[in-house]
Structure formats: structure tokens, C-alpha cells
Amino acid sequence: MKFMKRSALSLGFLTFLILIWELVCRYGDIPPFILPAPSRVLYVAIQQAPLLTYHAIMTGAEILLGIIFSVAIAIPLAIMMFVFPSVEQAFSPILVASQAIPVFALAPLLVVWFGYGIWSKVFMAALIIFFPIVVNLLEGLKSCDEDYRKLFTLMGAPFLKTFQYLYWPWALPYFLAGLKVGVSVATIGAVIGEWVGAQRGLGYLMIQSNARLRVDLVFASILWLTVIGVSLWIIVGAIEKKALAWKK
């Protein structure tokens, strides 16, 4: 009931903001190439659906590959940092420094190293997704209850069994929370990479549309990016609900 109430309030507030936006554009004499009305954005998003789909497929592929690569690297690294404190001491400053570097500063270098194809954008998306997954998973492993650790030790359980039946289930909510954060911002990395250099993608379409003063198509691209990000967040939320059903 509380969730439904919060959702209704959020939806109502969003509707109010869109209505204000629409009224300002209609009666404020604002040129469409400066700020198009929401109705115009929705019309363009539907009318240009084939074009937007063509570019969204590339952006979606970049994001999905970035998620796969970041998860494949983040899980083993977090486990190693948990098992070997020296590894955590060595990698923690590097992880923090990687987040202190603006992604715009890295994007041109990645394009030079990996070219204008898909891989520079995949790497950019993976960089953004990687950090919250590693940090959350490591925090989850380290927060395991000490009494349960002692119990498994007294029972003579080997580390692999302890990790399988204690550490991983304990850290799973933290991991999924980090994954939700990562996928919700994954579009940032892919789009920034496409802004710097690409031949296809929603970020590329936004740059091309902006140069032609097609601001309505820029907003339509943003709308599609929002749908991609929210969809990924919902999918991970559904996985989280199913994977953590045992906690109820």
C-alpha cells in the first residue's frame, strides 16, 4: 500500500511538471528549436520510431555488453579483495581514483585506442557500472555476521562451502543493489562515448540532431534513453525480488 501511494505521488508530480512544461511552451511563445513541448517530443518519438530503434539497438548492445564485462570482472575482484586484505589495500586507491577522473576526459582516449566502433562505448559503460558493483559486493561480504562465521568455523566448513552458503547469500542483496545503481547510470557511459566519436547510437543521433536544430529529436532520443535505463532498473529489480525470495 505504501509503495502504491509513493508511486501515485511520484506519477502525479511528474504529470504536473509535464503539464507546466506543455503550457509554458504553448503560451510562452518559445520556439520549438529552443524547447519543444512534451506533446511534440512524444509525437516525434513515435513518428521517428524506426530511426530511433535503429540507433537504440546499438546503444542497448553497448550497455548490455558493458554490464556483462563489468560483472564478470567486479565479482572476482571483490572476492579477492575480501579474501586477501593486501589486494584491497592495493586496489582501493585505484578504484577511487578511477571515479575521480571525469568520464569526458577518458572518452577521447578510448576512441583513439579502440576506434569508433562499439568497443570504446562498451568499455566506457563498463567503467561506470563497475565501481558500484565492486564496492557494494565487497561491503556485503565484509558485513557478514561474526557469529555466523564462527559457527561455520566450528562446524569445520571449508572456505568454498562457507562462501557458497554464508558469504554469498549474505552479500547478494548488496550486490544486486550495486547492480541496480550501475545499470541505471549505464546509459551515461555509452552516450558519452557516442558523443565523442561514433557512427551509430542514440548519442550519435543526438549530436547530429542538435547540429540541425532538431531539438525535438534530441528530446525524443533522451526519452528513449530514459526508457532503456528504467527498463534495465526494473529488470534487475525483478531479478532481485526473485533471487531474494528466501528472505521473506
User: What is the SS-derived class?
Assistant: mainly alpha
* Low-confidence runs of at least 5 consecutive residues: none
Following the backbone from N to C, one meets helices and strands in this order, namely: HHHHHHHHHH
Which CATH class applies here? Answer: Mainly Alpha
Rg, alpha carbons: 22 Å
Give the amount of beta strand, in percent: under 5%
Percent helix: over 70%
The CATH homologous superfamily is called MetI-like
Terminal residue distance: 17 Å
Shape: globular
Number of strands: 0
Outline the structure in words:
This protein has 248 residues and is mainly alpha-helical. 85% of the residues lie in helices and 0% in strands. The chain has one domain: Orthogonal Bundle (MetI-like fold). The chain has 10 helices and no strands. Helix 2 (38-47) packs across helix 10 and helix 3 (49-83) crosses helix 6 (118-142).
Give the tags.
single chain, 248 residues, mainly alpha, MetI-like fold, 85% helix, globular
Quick structural gist:
This protein has 248 residues and is an all-alpha fold. It has a single domain, classed as MetI-like (MetI-like fold, Orthogonal Bundle), CATH 1.10.3720. It has 10 helices and no strands.
